[in-house]
Amino acid sequence: MTRIVHKFTRSVPDWQPRVTPVKLEEATPEQLDALKVTPSNTKVSAYVLTLAHDVESLKVRSPLFNAIMYDPGGMSRAEREVGALAASMVNRCIYCAAVHADRHAKLEKSTEVTDELFLNGPNARLSPRDRAIFDFAVKLAKAPPEAGAEDMAKLREAGLSEEEILDLILSSALFGWANRLMHVLGDPVAKTAKA
Amino acid sequence: MSIFETTALSVAGIAAETATGAAAATRANIMEMTQAAEEAVLAPEDTGAFPHELRAALAARVARLNGDNALAGRYLAKAGTFAGLADTGTDGSAEDLAAVVGFFDKVAARTADVAAEDIAALQAAGVSDADIVRLCELNAFLAYQIRLIAGLRLMQGDAA
To answer: What ipTM, to 2 d.p.?
Structure first.
């Protein structure tokens, strides 16, 4: 029996695909290249093996993802994680929310913000700056997007620069993408003890 | 291609000499990779079950579902014989694509509600696992591009 996780948590679950991932021993040279498989690196996650079904997308997605979340300059990494987490909460991607809440807590060396968000959702008590960031990212993640001029004005009132605002748009939008892969193509399942 | 000619910046109407344009220029690599990602899902070499015109039609449909008629128009121009699918009042049955279109709409607009049964239904309709992943990548990329464009317009001060 697998136990599917339905509630937001910072404990990162396992991810169980709903389709059959590419089998490493049957992968094409192009898939192996995109998977960065080498004789010394043969560990590839079920998620990446699932995405290897569309190798052209996988190849461009990974560097784009890393640039949006980790490139220097602009918004801090922790605040980009708030953007990612907000979108993941809108789309109820339990797995994505866990990974990025955990990263936020580690970057900030504090679980205060993510505890608040998971406990109180939209009513979480946040600093004015985090409030403006979270609310904008939530509204941008809705379908259709609901962010408006007032939400943009609040970001500027909270002191965000144009570069920081662009990074926030990118991180929330990127998780509109990531959530539609992780939440749609698989289930978050409670980790089982490793044999 | 200048980054201001990419789909995201040109549809959002961002010019180089503006404050928003200057911010975008600091992330030129991201704007270039965003365009490369569009190529990979709209016009891949390996199309699977979804030819380029069908992909463009589905892209136009999702843009419309999200209220972005400018982006929809750009994709619709490439939709060829599948252009009818961009009409959100249709359900794909005329093209024998009802299962695909129903899934596509749900992933785009009711993401939180997607469940294992939705994938099982596609499999039961004869869609291969590789094609299910291709559909999700197309849909997921569009979710990103639509929101990037919406955010850029807000930065520039255009009405949403």
So the answer is: 0.97
Domains of chain B listed by start with CATH number: 3-156 (1.20.1290)
Of A51, A54, A179, the CB nearest to B111: A179
Nearest to A144 among B44, B67, B155 (CB): B67
Cis peptide preceding B51, ω within 30 of 0: no
Q: pLDDT per residue over B109-127, tens digit each? A: 999 999 999 999 999 999 9
Q: Which residue of A has its CA nearest to B117?
A: A18
The residue to which tokens 């539609």 are assigned = A180
Domains within chain A, CATH numbers bracketed: 73-180 (1.20.1290.10)
Residues 48-67 of B with CB under 8 A from A: 48, 65-67
**Cβ neighbours of residue B14 closer than 8 Å, sequence gap 6 or more:** B4, B20, B21, B24, B152, B156
H or E stretch including A17? strand A14-17
